[in-house]
């Protein structure tokens, strides 16, 4: 019994030991369990934070990709701008070169870029309107060059013509002076010849040339009327007027170079004395100017003219006035007879 009690007692000790061990294990388990629960809670919090961080990381990665895309676009844009800048610089050099040809000195502009662009746009619009009305710039420039060349050519021609006109003016002025001298000389010669021819009839006269008004005044003083002074041609008799006219024609023939000289019925209203003097004057002039041809028509007989080889007389037959009148009356009668019947 004691042994069994001892065994039971030892078993109880052992049980208490195991019970204490179990309690320790249970307490440890409880602590571990609490620790696990605490860790689980912390893990859940961390999982939530991890999810948040993963979402934020994904968002940042997406933002990074967008930014990388924008960066690539900006880099491409920068590269394109650099290329465009290089082109603009080349274009600027060309424009500066063209502008230097027009204006060597660079003009200082006080306006802004926008103002200059607005002005350029306005000028371009105005140029388009001008080109639509007058043609393209190349055509206008070509036409301007042709017009300028033609203008210079015509200017040279006008200058030459003006010089030629000045020479002509000088020549015409000289010719006018010479003409006036010659006209005065011819007028004086005509007056002298007229007086010389009038002296043949013991008459005297005068001629007044008014070259400005283009008039000629002739005055003749017949013999025996010297005290009356120079008379007008209208105050002369028919014979005196005819003789004065012959003297005037002869004086004109002396100062002209016509190869033919004609007079028709020059001796009408002349008496035989004046007719004889007029014929002598005409024959004398024709002998002196034998290289010219003289034609005189007169209804008076020419039987008293001298017989020379230089004079040829063509005499026409007298018309039969009575027979012609009879024929005319008969013709009228014949024309009227059908109507009377």
Unreliably modeled segments: 324-341
Count up the helices: 6
- CATH architectural name of the domain at 185-297: 3-Layer(aba) Sandwich
What does the overall shape look like? rod-shaped
Strand order, largest beta sheet: 1-2-3
Notable traits:
single chain; 341 residues; mainly alpha; Rossmann fold; three-stranded antiparallel β-sheet; two-stranded parallel sheet; 6 helices; 71% helix; 8% strand; rod-shaped; disordered C terminus
Describe the structure.
The chain is mainly alpha-helical and 341 residues long. Among the domains are: 29 residues; 113 residues, P-loop containing nucleotide triphosphate hydrolases (Rossmann fold, 3-Layer(aba) Sandwich), CATH 3.40.50.300. 71% of the residues lie in helices and 8% in strands. The protein has a three-stranded antiparallel β-sheet with strand order 1-2-3, covered by helices on one side. Strands 4-5 form a two-stranded parallel ribbon. Strand 4, helix 5 and strand 5 form a beta-alpha-beta unit. Helix 3 packs across helix 4 and helix 4 runs parallel beside helix 5. The chain starts with a helix and ends with a helix. One of its GO terms (biological process) is double-strand break repair via homologous recombination.
């Amino acid at each position: 019994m004691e042994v069994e009690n001892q065994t039971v007692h030892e078993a109880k000790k052992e049980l208490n030991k195991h019970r204490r061990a179990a309690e320790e294990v249970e307490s440890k388990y409880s602590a571990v369990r609490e620790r696990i629960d605490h860790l689980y809670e912390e893990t859940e919090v961390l999982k939530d934070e991890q999810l948040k961080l993963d979402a934020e990381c994904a968002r940042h990665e997406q933002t990074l990709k967008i930014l990388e895309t924008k960066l690539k676009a900006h880099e491409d844009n920068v590269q394109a701008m650099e290329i465009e800048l290089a082109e603009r610089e080349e274009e600027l050099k060309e424009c500066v070169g063209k502008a230097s040809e027009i204006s060597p000195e660079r003009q200082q502009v006080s306006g802004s870029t926008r103002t200059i662009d607005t002005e350029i746009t306005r000028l371009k619009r105005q140029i388009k309107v001008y080109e639509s009305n007058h043609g393209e710039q190349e055509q206008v420039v070509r036409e301007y060059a042709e017009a300028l060349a033609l203008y210079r050519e015509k200017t040279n021609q006008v200058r030459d013509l003006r010089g030629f006109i000045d020479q002509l003016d000088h020549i015409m002025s000289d010719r006018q002076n010479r003409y006036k001298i010659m006209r005065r000389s011819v007028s004086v010669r005509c007056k002298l010849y007229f007086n010389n021819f009038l002296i043949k009839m013991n008459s005297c006269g005068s001629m007044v040339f008014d070259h400005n008004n283009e008039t000629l005044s002739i005055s003749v003083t017949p013999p025996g009327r010297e005290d009356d002074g120079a008379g007008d041609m209208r105050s002369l008799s028919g014979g005196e007027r005819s003789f004065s006219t012959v003297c005037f024609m002869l004086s004109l023939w002396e100062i002209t170079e016509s190869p033919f000289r004609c007079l028709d019925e020059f001796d009408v209203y002349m008496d035989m004395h004046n007719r004889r003097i007029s014929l002598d004057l005409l024959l004398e002039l024709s002998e002196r100017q034998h290289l010219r041809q003289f034609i005189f028509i007169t209804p008076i007989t020419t039987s008293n003219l001298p017989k020379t080889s230089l004079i040829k007389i063509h005499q026409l037959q007298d018309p039969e006035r009575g027979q012609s009148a009879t024929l005319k009356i008969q013709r009228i009668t014949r024309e009227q007879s059908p109507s009377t019947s």
